[in-house]
Amino acid sequence: MHVTLRQLEAFVTVARHLSFTRAAEELNLTQPAVSMQIKQLESQLGQALFEQMGKKIYLTEAGHDVRQYARSILQQVDDMKAGLENLSGLERGTLSISVATTAHYFAPKLLSIFYERYPGVNVKLDVTNRESLVSQLENNTVDMVIMGRPPEDIDVESGAFMENPLVLIAPADHPFTREKSIQLTRLENEVFLVREEGSGTRKAMEMFFAQHGIQMTTGMEVSSDEAIKRSVQAGLGLGIMSRDAVQNELQLGLLCIPDVLHFPIMRHWYVMHRKGKRLSPVAQAFKGYLLEEAASILNKDPNLRRSAKPLDTTPPADASSLPDASSPMDPPRPESPVGEKYVPAKPKYVLTGPDGNPIPPAPRK
Ligand code: PGA
After folding, report:
1. Rounded to the nearest 5 degrees, what angle is found at the Cα of 320, between the Cα atoms of 217 and 137?
2. Which of 18, 101, 139, 325 allows an S-S link to 319, with CB 3.0 to 4.6 Å?
3. Whose CA is nearest to atom 2 of ligand 1?
4. pLDDT tens, N- to C-terminus, the chain (365 residues)
5. Ligand 1 in contact with 101 (CB < 6 A)?
C-alpha cells in the first residue's frame, strides 16, 4: 500500500470542511488536484471515503475511521518535527487546537491576538462537542483542547484560565423576571431545551439537577447553542448555557437570566493536552498565553464578557459539583417590560422531524 502524507492531509482537510472547494482553498491547490489525492487514497485503501447526496458530501463509515487514523498520523508527524528541530522558535509552526462548541464564542478573539503576535503561525481550529474532544485527546490528534472540565479517565495536564458560569436563560418576557430568589423547585414546572448527548453543557446541567434532586422535564434536544437560544426566545422552553454564549442576546434584551437560587452553575474553562505530550514552542506559547492573559483580554471586551471576572489565583478543582457555587456575577437583567405575552412551553410536539411530523419530547422520568 502506498499512502502519502499529502493524501492524508488532503483527506482530513476535505473531511473537516466537507467541501472539496474549501479544502482546495485552504491547501492552496486546485480542486481537481484535491480530488485526485482523495481518489488515489481511496484506491490505495480500497474503500470509498466520501459519499455524495444531493450537493453535499458526507464521510462514509470507512471515512470516519480513516479520519481518526489520518489525524493521528499527521499529528505525530507534527510532534516529530517539533521534537526534532524544536522548529525555529515562534516564527513558524502549526498550532492545532480543538475547542468545545461553546468556546467558539471567545476562541477567535484570543486567536486573533495570538496571530498578531506570531503572524507566521498557522492555526488549525476544530470546533466540536466535549465527547469528540475527549476522543481527540485520547487519540492524540491535536496539540491541545479547550473545554469545560478535564476528562476523568484520561491522563491530561490541564489548567483553568477563566471562569465559565452556566446561566439559566429564559425569554425576556418570562414571568420569572418579576421575581427574586426563585426556588430551584419551581424549575420542575418548566420545560428545558437540552444540547445533544456528548455535550459538556448538557452533562453539567444534568449533574446539577441530579445533585439538587430536581426533576427536569426535557423538551427538544438541539445540537447547537445558537438554535437553543432562538428556541428559548420563541418560548419553546428554558435553557442552561455558558454565559459566554449569550452575551449578545442579553445585551439586546432578547433573553434574560432569571434570579433562581443556586445559579449560576460555576465551572471553568480549561486548556489541556495529554500528559507528557511534547508541545512545540508555538503550542507552549499559546498555552502560556491562555493561562496568563486570556481572562483579562476577554473580560476587557464588553461584547464578549460583560461582567465575568478573571481568575485571581489557581482555581480549585471544577466547582460544578458544589451545590452552593453561585456567585454574584449575573449581568444586569434587560429591562424588558413583562407583558402577558409569555406562554409557557408545551412539552408536547415542539419538534418536527425532516418528514414534517412532530417528534414528541423525551418522557418525563
Ligand atoms: P459543549 O462543551 O460545547 O460540548 O457543551 C462545553 C464544555 O465542555 O463545558
Report:
1. 100
2. 325
3. 200
4. 799 999 999 999 999 999 999 999 999 999 999 999 999 999 999 999 999 888 899 999 999 999 999 999 999 888 777 766 655 577 778 899 999 999 999 999 999 999 999 888 889 999 999 999 999 999 888 999 999 989 988 999 999 999 999 999 999 999 999 999 999 999 999 999 999 998 999 999 999 999 999 999 999 999 899 999 999 999 999 999 999 999 999 999 999 999 999 999 999 999 999 998 888 888 999 999 999 999 999 988 766 665 444 454 444 444 343 333 333 333 333 333 333 444 444 443 344 445 544 444 444 43
5. yes
Indicate the residue type of 86: N
Please work out whether the CB of residue 281 comes within 6 Å of at least one atom of ligand 1. no
Query: How far apart (Å, rounded) are the C-alpha atoms in residues 90 and 286?
Result: 10
273 bridge partner residues? 157
- The pTM assigned to this predicted structure is 0.65
User: Ligand 1 within 6 A of 129 CB?
Assistant: yes
Q: Helix (H) and strand (E) counts for the chain?
A: 11, 13
